[in-house]
Amino acid sequence: MELADLAVFVEAAQAGSLAAAGRRLGVTPMAASRRLAALEAELSVRLVHRTTRSLSLTPEGEAFLPHAQAILDQEAEGRAAVRPAKAGASGLLRITASVPFGRKIVTPMMASFLRDNPDLRAELLLTDGMVDIAAQGIDLALRIGPLRDSTLVARRLADNPRGLYASPRYLERCGTPKIMTDLAAHECLLLPGMTQWTFESGDKAVQQRVSGRFTADSFEALQQSAIEGQGIVRLSAWNVQDDLASHRLMEITLSDVVIPEQSVWAVYPTTRFVPAKVRLFVDAFQAYLRAQRTR
Fold first, then answer.
1. What are the structural domains, with CATH classification, of the chain?
2. pLDDT (tens digit, 9 = 90+) per residue, 215-237?
């Protein structure tokens, strides 16, 4: 199959017309139509329904589209692998991250990365659940905390300091805990099923039983509940920078324990082949995290 024919098909599917695909690729509508016809003839199947003004995919076209895109992406990755790093990233980069981390950290960085790499397209999948990155064709997962899947390949990018936070209103009403055991008398905002928080005292891990009237399966919901004065929440420091600056939340420091350290990780499905677009993004993201720490 000719890559130029595949490119016309993919662009036409995305743009909804051959004329628009031709403009994107710098060819005439007639040339674009001929390339699409050549691809259909080679495959012996109709890929699109065409009218004078629009285009829609046939069931066969819908089935073939992701494969055509993958072929074009692999070709772009092959070119990128032998280009100098300064040439930039290209192709489609698929990344997954948790919802709050993706919104507050990854998305702002991605905007500048796309500006610096005009040949790159990016797809960011935000979920607080675990994702099988190999099965779903994801290039990179950005994860926080201990890694549970030993079959994956990970690169540590940065520290992920955490803290306890509450609103001034809550602390005025209920007092400020000074030591770990004080937390037993406080409203703690927790994930469902959580009954204790782990701390470190010296080099030893210790647990404190905690409880509260509000639980949620979303850190964003727990954070908002803390802002509303409902209790104490445990969050990553990057998550509360704006709330601390605006005095919506205050940090609580316990004198006898600290919260165990975590890390931010870049997780790959394999080390057999790490595309240039992934390497360039990870390097840029690590630099971005360092810059955030020095703000």
1. 3-82 (1.10.10.10), 88-160+263-293 (3.40.190.10), 162-252 (3.40.190.10)
2. 998 899 999 999 999 999 999 99
